Amino acid sequence: MSARSAVQPNPQRPSSVRQIAEIVGVSIATVSRALNAPHQVTPATRNRILEAASRVGYRPSPLGRNLVVGRSHLVGLIVPNIGFPLYGLMARSVEDILEPLGLRALLASSDDDNDREVEAAQSLLRHAVDGGIVINSRASASLPSGPRYPWIHLSPEAAGLSGAVELDNVAGGRLAGQHLLSLGRRRLAHVAGEGREGDDREAGFLEALRDHPLEAVGRAVGDYSEQTGRISTRAILERVGRDGLDGLFLASDIMAAGALRELREAGLRVPEDVAVIGFDDAEFAGLLTPPLTTVRQPAKAMGAAAARLLLQSYTLESSETLSNQPVLFAPELVVRGSSVAAHHS
Amino acid sequence: MSARSAVQPNPQRPSSVRQIAEIVGVSIATVSRALNAPHQVTPATRNRILEAASRVGYRPSPLGRNLVVGRSHLVGLIVPNIGFPLYGLMARSVEDILEPLGLRALLASSDDDNDREVEAAQSLLRHAVDGGIVINSRASASLPSGPRYPWIHLSPEAAGLSGAVELDNVAGGRLAGQHLLSLGRRRLAHVAGEGREGDDREAGFLEALRDHPLEAVGRAVGDYSEQTGRISTRAILERVGRDGLDGLFLASDIMAAGALRELREAGLRVPEDVAVIGFDDAEFAGLLTPPLTTVRQPAKAMGAAAARLLLQSYTLESSETLSNQPVLFAPELVVRGSSVAAHHS
DNA sequence: CTGAAAGCGCTAACAT
DNA sequence: ATGTTAGCGCTTTCAG
Fold first, then answer.
1. Mean pLDDT for the stretch of residues B194-223
2. CATH 3.40.50.2300 fits B169-297, yes or no
3. What's the topology of domain B1-58?
4. Cα-atom radius of gyration of chain A, to the nearest Å?
């Protein structure tokens, strides 16, 4: 079946420079110039070419063009999971920076898996991306690279790599600690997260606590799920007793959501009995009961910074290289009802 | 650091079939065959070629290949905003279906804007995507298309288009209505959402209510924000009085979050005084207080269905065409504490 | 200002 | 089984 042929020399195939050249009666070189360097062509012929082009609905083929110029205008974007809001936000702002320059993001999910990430990078390379951004890399070092394939790293473990954007997690933990202290809380506890991020947040938290006369400091570790937020909180409560806790910092908002629930069920009031503070400032943080105080991770700004870094490396001489100093982002404290009783509202 | 050069004649330019052909002493055609149709080549030479290829770190250029085969193995993915969790989930599952087939998603955000969407589609086409999926299209009809550029629509307004995946919003509204009725609630109200989606959800809701002796039915319209959820709830309360409401359905979970807050501040208990039900089953629905009963939108399944539809159109004869019947997805009721008092837990 | 010609990297007949 | 040849759509010298 089908339009296999017979009608036109080529019914299916989109119009090409050659077709236009024939219509107008010029060479394909002139057509190319009229399109890419208009001032190099006599207005008269240029117009005839442009007119013919729009008449046949001409679309330049990026395939042909890319082949000769050697760039695809594609940028790889490796993300643990684009379905996670935080990563989605970062991806979005990467896109916003790239788009005005005619660059498009090619997506790949790594699921936080070392091997999948390397595979993704290779796959993207096979699609001829001009460069790439990798969020929360697990395999930074082993990513296939080269002068023509700059990878920008947007993650906590990128230390020492040539193009990196990081959140200052230590500062974030410090912020949380200082906030609880400033509230007069002295029986504190922390539910840490896994990995480098979690370690840094905890380090900052403890640093803020140092030299303060605390009555107690509890600790547990979670995996950034609501579940472990609850369980860890319960465990801490059992250890220190209902009166042994008046300030709780968790390494993520999701865990904090679990903590809020657990505390409520234990009959403790937030923030009166215990002030709670999370990390990330996820979309839902302000919707919880009470609204969650948290340490905000500037996802959009970080995504934008990574994109700009990539752009910058585009214009570099091949001998030059990006700074080894990561671009560090400062987190920000967002105070809500889980740490300070609502004034009114 | 690193292998800046000196090793190869050409430090910068990646290796090509030609280079390998020269090294091994065969024609470039044989190299191509050894790579793409191994069995057409003598094991001996094949091995020498493969060995040489890996030695020089050969990576086939997709640009050259695509140019001749006429496909880019790129799929466009137009999304209102990849930063929205629901869309992120859909994107992720599209990716999961596409990846095993060597297809990659090229991302573009439309911000729910008609013009931006058309621009995005054109931009993707310029990047030679083989086809595309457009989520929540505002401009379905005016998207540049053709037999070689199948667009699959994943949205409520795609009716009548050739490849479409839709959520049965009417059924969703009905589910919500039936649930409230089954709970014995008779003083109901609805906070509708804008657009076709909102209309359908409301239509289904009202349909379920028909023929039931209701004491009152309130109504307001919101724009899917927490703000308008609150305001609408307040307005309804003012209109019908504190005792005039015992069941509230909102067209989105975010609005429902606002409603929960408003009801609490009005001193009404959920679910005892009023049962609340949202729509979407967003990530945070289960984290609210009380956990939100909602109508679940099967985002992952819908994304996967759209991807499969696209794949299907890949293999179609050019005269064939996809069904005009949209693939309809049934929403699912998720009962939580906002409509039924917790048994225990 | 314009045309002719070469070539980007690869595949696909068509020969051998 | 392998080589030859042509050409995908486009840009870019190099001449004129």
1. 92
2. yes
3. 434 Repressor (Amino-terminal Domain) (1.10.260)
4. 28
